[in-house]
Specification:
The protein is of the alpha+beta class and 100 residues long. The chain is 39% helix and 28% strand. A four-stranded antiparallel β-sheet has the order 2-3-1-4. The mean pLDDT is 93.
């Protein structure tokens, strides 16, 4: 029962390299392993969540993992589409936007 769709972008800084793919892959692995429904895009990953607590727990896991990888700074961009009256699903939002 998803009450929000969160669009998340995580940018590790202070990695000592211009390549971030191994860090981004690790973040995607964390989201996948969480069991949450998600869809990865070119710049953001959309995630279906039921509560702000789930988001906080997910961000905490991401941060701990990146710090363990030696990341010195992390920039997060979080966009939350929150519904109180009904469930939200990524695929339905996309279908409506594309007129399908």
């Amino acid at each position: 029962m998803a009450k929000m769709v969160v669009s998340l972008s995580v940018t590790p800084l202070g990695t000592g390299s211009t390549s971030l793919s191994k860090h981004v892959k690790k973040v995607t692995d964390i989201i996948r392993e969480s069991g949450l429904r998600y869809r990865t895009g070119a710049g953001f990953t959309d995630i279906e969540l039921d509560s702000y607590r789930q988001l906080a727990d997910l961000l905490d896991k991401i941060e701990k993992t990146l710090v363990d990888m030696g990341v010195q700074r992390i920039s997060y961009v979080v966009k939350i589409d929150r519904r109180i009256d009904k469930e939200l699903f990524i695929e339905e939002k996309i279908a409506r936007a594309e007129g399908i």
